[in-house]
Every structure is written in structure tokens, then in C-alpha cells.
Design goal:
The protein has 173 residues and is mostly beta strands. It has 1 helix and 8 strands; from the N terminus they run αββββββββ.
């Protein structure tokens, strides 16, 4: 496997930090307080890789960029999305993500996935938040339109078809 290809895989796996399985988020439901969300995410950052047995590459990825929502009742249209992920080089990736709005309130999520590559789908689970997002829950998925990795560790990506649902699962503290 070429270094560029390994780098792209590592970036994707981690970056998406995302998806152990290419499952889709549950379709939005109007009942029970669920609100559909849709949008896109552009991110850039760094990755650090090491060789692993079998010729693979394990990686740690840290990226941030703009999450732009085109649908999301009661949510702002823009967040700063940050993600940190780990790819073990053997098909397992996981990570954590935080979306921060312009007031500093945050939505937290965990991400799981398979190797990160262009065209792959990833799944996030919203695990809570701060401020106006305290007590939020939900899920979302997205597809990496592209993942670009350079030899010096720089990474650029764009996630499209971001969709899912969110609701306040419990009263804020």
C-alpha cells in the first residue's frame, strides 16, 4: 500500500473518527421531540502515523472546521466542529467530536467507523452538551466527499450528506 494511500486511510478512519459500520442514522421522526438535521462539514488538521504489523498504518488525527447546517430547527446554522480520532491500522477507528456554537455552547458526540476514505459513510452519536444543548441526544451520519492527506501530516476533508436527528432527552442541569 502506498504512503499516500495509507495516509488517506489513516486520516479518514480517524478523522471521521468515525464509523465502525457504514450504517445510517435513524430517519428523523416528527414525534417524541425529534428534530431533523442536515448539512455539511469541511475540516483540516494533522495526522500522525506509525507502521503496524502486516504493512498497515495506525494513526491519530486531529481536525477542525466549519459544520454548516441547512436544516436544524432551534439550532444555529454554523458550528466549529473538532474531532480527535484513532485508527488502529487494522480496520477499527473511533473518535470524539465537539461542535461549538458562537456563544461557546457545545454538542458532544462519539464517532465510529471503518477505514476513512472518500465515499465512505460514518455515524455519530450525540452524547450531550453544555449551555443550551445540555441534555441533548441524537444521531447523525455523513459521507466523506474527499479526504486529502499530504506527506507532511496535513489533512483536508469535506463531509457531505450530513443528516440525522436531535432532541432534548433530559432537562438541562
Amino acid at each position: 500500500m502506498s504512503t499516500g494511500r495509507s495516509a488517506a486511510r489513516a486520516v479518514g478512519l480517524t478523522l471521521a473518527l468515525a464509523c465502525v459500520s457504514p450504517a445510517r442514522a435513524a430517519p428523523p421522526s416528527a414525534g417524541e421531540g425529534w428534530a431533523p438535521i442536515e448539512g455539511a462539514w469541511s475540516a483540516s488538521g494533522r495526522r500522525h502515523t506509525i507502521a503496524v504489523e502486516g504493512g498497515g498504518t495506525a494513526a491519530i488525527v486531529e481536525m477542525s472546521g466549519a459544520v454548516v447546517l441547512t436544516k436544524g430547527e432551534g439550532l444555529p446554522h454554523a458550528f466549529r466542529g473538532e474531532v480527535i480520532g484513532f485508527d488502529d491500522g487494522q480496520g477499527t477507528s473511533m473518535g470524539r467530536c465537539v461542535w461549538t456554537d458562537d456563544a461557546g455552547d457545545r454538542l458532544f458526540s462519539s464517532l465510529k467507523g471503518e477505514p476513512l476514505q472518500s465515499g465512505k459513510r460514518f455515524v455519530g452519536t450525540i452524547t450531550g452538551g453544555t449551555g443550551r444543548y445540555a441534555g441533548f441526544a441524537g444521531e447523525y451520519s455523513f459521507t466523506w466527499q474527499y479526504i486529502l492527506a499530504s506527506e507532511d501530516g496535513q489533512v483536508q476533508s469535506r463531509a457531505v450528506s450530513l443528516s440525522g436527528r436531535v432532541r432534548r432527552a433530559s432537562a438541562p442541569e
